[in-house]
């Protein structure tokens, strides 16, 4: 079994523009799009999009890369590339949280809140600016407030749900649209000793059995993408308890104002922004 990757390298502005076009075109289809700095000295970036099988609209995809010159390659999906890459990653600190692999347990200090996240098939190892921003914001809010429950919407690896459960010791509902991600999240929850407090469920937005009881939450964390976050704003407002807090990420700095406007329309107002690289994490409340 293999995946097909379309990719191109070039200057930052052109690569970011291609990334935005690809992300907008294929977000609904679930095709992963990535961007990273390939050469720091030369400021060369690389953008990629992955497909399980050759897409019918190949010419249209190539056009989305312009003026870059895209290439294609087949990736052997039987090789655990995630494991081989993450094995070399160092622990990530965000406030008191230290996200680490099993081989770095010894680096967790007496005052640290260690979160064990091994290589897996779900996003959220702490190395991405959005995850680190959310962890930092969670720590800041929980220093000042004591929520009774929380929701991690689009949980991925469950790193954020685990962080809330470890620090606040409250019930957390962790949901994701992807059943594979939920399986990975469930394993991470068990590995971190918070299975009694974190419930993992499959859900599309706020639709699914996990939300059938109409529960409201004191704290909602959602690290997904700007488009879905904007569409979910009315549902977020309905599910937020009076006096509650929302943490949003997966948002590029240039998308910040549009996201804030969508939530301002729901009488949810900006309290703070954390920026890490090109990404921002937002704190909103009533």
UniProtKB/TrEMBL annotation:
Annotated GO CC locations: ribosome
Signal peptide range in chain numbering: none
Ribosomal protein recorded as keyword: yes
Role played: Methylates ribosomal protein L11.
InterPro entries: Ribosomal_L11_MeTrfase_PrmA, Ribosomal_PrmA_MeTrfase, SAM-dependent_MTases_sf
UniProt keyword terms in alphabetical order: Cytoplasm, Methyltransferase, Ribonucleoprotein, Ribosomal protein, S-adenosyl-L-methionine, Transferase
Name of the protein in question: Ribosomal protein L11 methyltransferase
Amino-acid positions noted as binding S-adenosyl-L-methionine in the UniProt annotation, renumbered to this chain: 131, 154, 176, 223
Catalytic activity: L-lysyl-[protein] + 3 S-adenosyl-L-methionine = N(6),N(6),N(6)-trimethyl-L-lysyl-[protein] + 3 S-adenosyl-L-homocysteine + 3 H(+)
Entry's EC annotation: 2.1.1.-
Family label: Belongs to the methyltransferase superfamily. PrmA family.
Cellular localization per UniProt: Cytoplasm
SUPFAM superfamilies listed in its UniProt record: S-adenosyl-L-methionine-dependent methyltransferases (SSF53335)
Highest taxon of source: Bacteria
């Amino acid at each position: 079994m293999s995946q097909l990757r379309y990719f191109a390298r070039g200057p930052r502005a052109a690569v970011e523009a291609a990334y935005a076009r690809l992300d907008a075109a294929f977000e609904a289809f679930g095709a992963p799009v990535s961007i990273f700095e390939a050469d720091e000295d030369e400021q060369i970036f690389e953008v990629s999009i992955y497909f399980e099988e050759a897409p019918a609209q190949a010419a249209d995809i190539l056009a989305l890369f312009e003026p870059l010159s895209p290439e294609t390659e087949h990736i052997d999906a039987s090789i655990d590339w995630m494991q081989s890459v993450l094995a070399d990653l160092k622990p990530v600190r965000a406030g008191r949280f230290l996200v680490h692999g099993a081989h770095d347990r010894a680096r967790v200090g007496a005052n640290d809140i260690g979160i064990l996240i091994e290589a897996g098939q779900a996003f959220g190892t702490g190395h991405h600016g959005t995850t680190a921003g959310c962890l930092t914001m969670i720590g800041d809010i929980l220093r000042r407030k004591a929520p009774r429950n929380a929701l991690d919407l689009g949980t991925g690896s469950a790193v954020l749900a685990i962080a809330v459960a470890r620090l606040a010791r409250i019930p957390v509902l962790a949901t994701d649209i992807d059943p594979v991600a939920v399986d990975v999240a469930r394993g991470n929850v068990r590995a971190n000793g918070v299975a009694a407090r974190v419930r993992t469920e499959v859900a599309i937005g706020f639709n699914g059995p996990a939300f059938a009881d109409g529960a409201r939450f004191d704290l909602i964390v959602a690290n997904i993408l700007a488009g879905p976050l904007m569409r979910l704003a009315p549902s977020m407002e309905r599910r937020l308890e009076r006096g509650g807090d929302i943490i949003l990420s997966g948002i590029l700095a240039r998308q910040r104002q549009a996201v804030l406007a969508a939530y301002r329309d729901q009488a949810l107002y900006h309290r703070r922004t954390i920026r890490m690289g090109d990404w921002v994490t937002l704190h909103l409340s009533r």
